[in-house]
Amino acid sequence: MASPTDAPARRREDLRGRAARGTVINAAFLVGFNLLGFLRGFAVAAFLTTEDYGIWGLLIAALATLAALSAVGVDDKYVQQEDADQEIAFQRAFTLQVALNGLLLAVIVVALPLFALLYGEWEIVLPGYVLALALPAVALQAPLWTFYRDMEFARQRRLQAFDPVVSLVVTIGLAAAGAGYWALVAGGLAGAWAAAAAAVRASPYPLRLRWARGTVREYAGFSGPLALSALAGVLVGLIPILVAQRSLGLAAVGAIAVASTISAYANRVDEIVTDTLYPAICAVRDRPELLRESFLKSNRLALLWAVPAAGAIALFADDIVDHLLGDRWEVAAFLLQAFAVAAALNQVAFNWTAFYRARGETRPVAVVAAATLGAVVVLAVPLLLWRGVDGFGVGMVLATLAAVGVRLRYAARLFGWGVLLANTARGIAPALPAVAAILLFRWAEGGDAGRSPARALLELAVYGVLAAACTLVSERALLREVRGYLVPA
Fold first, then answer.
1. Which are the contacts of 116, defined by CB distance < 8 A and separation ≥ 6?
2. Of 342, 344, 337, the residue nearest 270 (C-alpha)
3. Looking at residues 193-216, what average pLDDT do you find?
4. CA 69 → CA 97, 223, 225, 234, 275, distances in Å?
5. Which helix (H) or strand (E) segment is 310 a member of?
């Protein structure tokens, strides 16, 4: 087996094939990971009250805000660099991550009581301190970066699998035993440390602290805008949660949290494709024709998955509530639909940041994140105060449209408006006949009130078959190309 220091040469060998195979590997693992996360959040919702889930939502919002301080793209910069000695490069990046996580742990100790005071919910402090013990484990998962950089996706994902699997088992077991939101806390902690143990064992380099001032300056220039972007992204979630808790109560917070959990499954394809392509993009960042091709095809593939998935959630949200979550979650039905639509919209030009990061231009990432935050504050929050969680759903769709518009401006600088819009239309089109068929069927039947589980499953099956058939017909060439990379003749 080649040593990790041979990575630059190996990353340039058959990049198309490696990226295509990596996409399928990442798709298989990440769809599985997100399914486990979906089941974890969904199953716990069946055991917890809306108030308990609301406490969890407040806790996650607080910790995510603080965690943004450490989400400064250390891993992205490590993947992008081409230092001669990769062991030293890794140890310097690992040292920065350890320092950031240590600083964050100290900040959490001080800040959690302030968040509790802000929320008026002191119940979040103790579980927050316990969950913060996962931060050292996150730093110890840094060896996963080496496999990611070398595009050894199968090995990376196998090691990452320890987290969601262990977390699911622990969380569901404790939730069934009546542990309430503590089941989520214990599950998250156990999963993080299980993945850390696996990563440390598999690390190709010794986990050694190696400090260098030049490295700090280099990473700061690249990562500063990414840190601001991460902070803005967290505030997008935190501000509505805080407003909902203050104006509507914990039940509204719980509705927002569960809608976010379920709709996120349609939104995760961006993680699959972007994570796969980023090392390859870094390797060919000086070849514009390959960058353009990879951007257009990857975005279309993402839309081909995300739009039908989001459409299914939007069309069958009432069934999810009626037959799975229970009547107490009825308040979240429309919110589920709105979040699903927003998730589909968010796939348009979703991985544009990878191309700018590969070029070392991270400022546009911060600009778009700030625009997104502004749209949420100006559009979604007032609608939340005016029309409750349903108004918030409408506001998030409008805010997503505004954010996508700003994002497209930057993507168009690299790839052009015409091909960008045409490619987006091609990615959305195959799902439209399936959506139209279900709506026409319900209209002919006189609406969807009181739909039985059997009828809902039948409609879902028809929807899935139509969406798949239209995709196969309209995108036969693209799918055949991808299959060719995966199964060489």
1. 122, 123, 124, 125
2. 344
3. 88
4. 11, 11, 12, 10, 21
5. helix 288-315
CA distance 481 to 486: 9
Using alpha carbons, select from 20, 467, 49, 2 the residue that is nearest to residue 251.
Answer: 49
**Chain centroid, CA 30 distance in Å:** 10
- Please check the confidence at residue 477 and state whether its pLDDT lies above 80: yes
Is residue 366 within 8 A of residue 230, CB to CB? The reply is no
Per the CB < 8 A criterion, the answer to whether 444 and 407 are in contact is: no
Top-ranked range on mean pLDDT: pick from 38-42, 303-307, 335-339, 393-397 = 393-397
d(CA 333, CA 393): 10
pLDDT digits 0-9 by tens, 67-90: 665 656 788 888 877 788 889 989
DSSP per residue, 399-452: HHHHHHHHHHHHHHHHH-HHHHHHHHHHHHGGGHHHHHHHHHHHHHTT--TT--
Predicted pLDDT of residue 13: 46
Task: Find the mean pLDDT for residues 186-209.
Answer: 93
Q: Which of 318, 325, 332, 411 is nearest to 364 (CA)?
A: 411
Residue with tokens 């110890």: 140
Confidence band of 489 (pLDDT split at 50, 70, 90): very low
Terminal CA-CA length for the chain: 25
Model pLDDT, residue 11: 46
- The residue type at 76: D
Two tokens, residue 325: 């979550």
pTM of the model: 0.71
